[in-house]
């Protein structure tokens, strides 16, 4: 840290000392300061956060051994493999992970295959509905309707099954069967909006069963 601030100080000193002979552009000072602040505030926080997660999360092998129930939700937060948007799937009656995907538009994967779609270092958070039997109803709906998904689209119509995306599909499974609103937003009553994965992650209707890292 001391060396970085010395470098910044030197650049500023040179700029004022001899502006005609060797003028230092403000961009150099900006980049030096911005680089230091990024390393101090962003990279440092990411490193500390990753260390805490590694200590708290279970290895991905534990997820493969976990007894999941129909309707359980598997969520992966923002990462490179999720195109920095997050991704989620829902467990069907057959134990497979049903998820709407840009390359699908929808897949029914075994848990082992589903995990291979993500990169090393990704996290997986498993949620379960607090309402009894809601998960089973959602899983049943998923298996009956997943083939109706024809296009991966970020569409605002929350009733459209044909044009869908991962978190909207999970939202529909619970909303259309048990009336559970995993979005918890007033705009949901208008049947319009975007169901971001992190919104479902924060739903009070769900409980966390476990967190895992790959």
Summarize the structure.
The chain has 214 residues and is of the alpha+beta class.
SSE topology:
Elements lengths: L1 H16 L8 H31 L1 E2 H6 L7 E4 L10 E5 L5 E4 L5 E4 L1 H6 L6 E7 L4 H12 L5 E2 L10 E2 L1 H13 L18 H5 L4 E8 L1
Parallel strand pairs: 1-9, 7-8
Antiparallel strand pairs: 2-3, 2-6, 3-4, 4-5, 6-9
Helix pairs in contact: 1-2, 5-6
Please provide the ordered H/E string of secondary-structure elements. HHEHEEEEHEHEEHHE
The major beta sheet can be summarized as: 7 strands, mixed
* Broad shape: globular
Classify the beta-strand content into a percent band. Answer: 15-25%
Protein name: Permuted papain-like amidase YaeF/Yiix C92 family enzyme
InterPro entries: Papain-like_cys_pep_sf (IPR038765)
Observed structural traits:
214 residues; alpha+beta; endopeptidase fold (from Nostoc punctiforme); 2 domains; two-stranded parallel ribbon; 7 helices; 42% helix
Structure, explained:
The longest helix has 31 residues, at 26-56. The strands form two sheets. The chain has a seven-stranded mixed sheet. A two-stranded parallel ribbon has the order 7-8. It is an alpha+beta fold and 214 residues long. The chain folds into two domains: 2-56, no CATH class; 59-213, Alpha-Beta Complex (endopeptidase fold (from Nostoc punctiforme)), CATH 3.90.1720. It is built from seven helices and nine strands; from the N terminus they run H-H-E-H-E-E-E-E-H-E-H-E-E-H-H-E.
